[in-house]
Amino acid sequence: MTNSRDQLLQKDWQDYIVNKLGNEQWVRVYCFRSNEIEHTTFYCALVPNRKIKHVLEHVSWDSLIGDGMPGCTLSWIKGRKRVSYSRLGDNSGIEPLVFFRKFHGIKSSHMEISEEFRYFHNLYYDNLNKKFIKIDDNGDEEDVILLEENAIMSWTRFLGQRTSIN
After folding, report:
1. How many CA atoms lie within 13 A of 11 on its CB side?
2. Across residues 70-97, what is the average pLDDT?
3. Contact between 113 and 124 (Cβ < 8 Å)
4. With contact defined as beta carbons under 8 Å apart, do 142 and 136 qualify?
5. Which ranges of 52-114 does DSSP label H, i.e. alpha helix?
């Protein structure tokens, strides 16, 4: 049983983040929980290797829920209008792994997994079981992303997988 001071200091979450997050086979890449005592949200993004050091040295938010959507910027250079398109809404290179889609109350909001992540791993979406599956060259299946009502879990090894180009 936790005491009210531990609850206020969020000791259980501190312990999870410091000692467990990233060391588990499955990691929360999105989570929203709310009750009388706390409101908890986990959210993540894919960070380019060249930005990792900078991101880890600063405590500011690098990506917020709703960031990462394509957009255009209008500017004027020497009296001429210039429109620039950005795939992720800015030029930071930071891409949300989970995109929050809203439709102004007309249709239900929902979460989507980064298209590039799905394509990179060639993931199949199993709608019946609410998960993304990797099918290897032998036809074996591995769960990669599990979708729950208020959480999304990813198999940790797929998040850190890199490719090398010679």
Report:
1. 8
2. 84
3. no
4. yes
5. 52-57
